[in-house]
Fold this sequence. Notes:
By secondary structure, the chain is of the alpha+beta class. The chain has 2 domains: about 5-80, Glutaredoxin (3-Layer(aba) Sandwich); about 90-215, Glutathione S-transferase Yfyf (Class Pi), Chain A, domain 2. The chain has helices spanning about 10-25, 40-45, 70-80, 90-120, 125-145, 160-175, 185-195, 195-215; strands at about 5, 30, 55-60, 65. The protein has a 4-stranded mixed β-sheet with strand order 2-1-3-4, with helices on one face. α1 (about 10-25) runs antiparallel to α6. The longest helix has 29 residues, at about 90-120. The termini are far apart. The relative contact order is 0.15.
Amino acid sequence: MELKLYYNPISSYSQKTLMGLYEKEVSFTPIVVNLMDPVARQEYLAVNPWGKVPTMICVDEDRTLPESSIILEFIDQRFSTGSKLFPNDPDQCRRARLFDRMSDFYLNDPTVTIFLDQIRPPEAKNPAAVARAKQTLETSVRVMNEHYATRTWALGEEFSIADVSAAPALFYMQQVYPFADFPHLVAYAQRVIGRPSYQKVLSEALPVLQQMAQKRN
């Protein structure tokens, strides 16, 4: 099956998709999209009219798949290699989907809100939005720390899409909302960020992040 992935290496949802593909040991053609480039963005709208990354193209089936979770569900259904991301058991699968959504909504999204506010000029900052985001993360950190006191992965001993979703969210979150006082969450973050699949993701993302930091300074 010929697959093309449109993505950006520093996008958390792109990272989630990349990690899942590496966990599944699935080959694909990577196509980096620079959404900050007006020309590249305009061209990409022909692939994804919302201008969001990632997007996967299944060439054999002439199928376009937006959204990280949808992409990885498709991949998990079509490929039996590597890690099983969506459990066969319906109840476990539902729990995996729940944790996947929680990472997206209650970790990643508020983290992005704080990060973007940090790089905005003073006149464009939104303290109220940042306060709401921090309140969400405060709750998430407390709940997750308790959850991982007795579990290796989100579902217990079974790695899944829930953990793939958490890795990029936690990587970025620890930089804008440190959680060092929550040892069980710290240990989980070290496990999931330390997986070879996510380390491979970071090997591409870190040089780009470093370049961005140098430009800001």
